Amino acid sequence: MLLFFEAVSKSIETNMSTSEINSLVQLELSELISWDIQSYQIIGDSATMPCYSLGGLNASVVIAYESSIEKATAYIDQIMAGEIVETETGDLDQ
Predict the structure, then answer these.
(1) Are 73 and 47 in contact (CB under 8 A)?
(2) What is the mean pLDDT of the chain?
(3) Bridge partner list, 49
């Protein structure tokens, strides 16, 4: 279990404690819960603009399309309402 956490720790940012994550994993293992993982990527156009995290230096950035942000917001709203969401790419279990 520890190796798993070490492997993914650089790829995940969360406010969950290690014990909460461990409890979630244990629940998954004991209940054999079926997960349905969907993915969605916000898209946009690239541009060169000042980047405040670089002290105002120009950097390559992505300006997200408003329609892409609206779609992501709608997906989040559905999830928060307890609805099952299927993104455009479909059900990844199939």
Answers:
(1) no
(2) 81
(3) 59
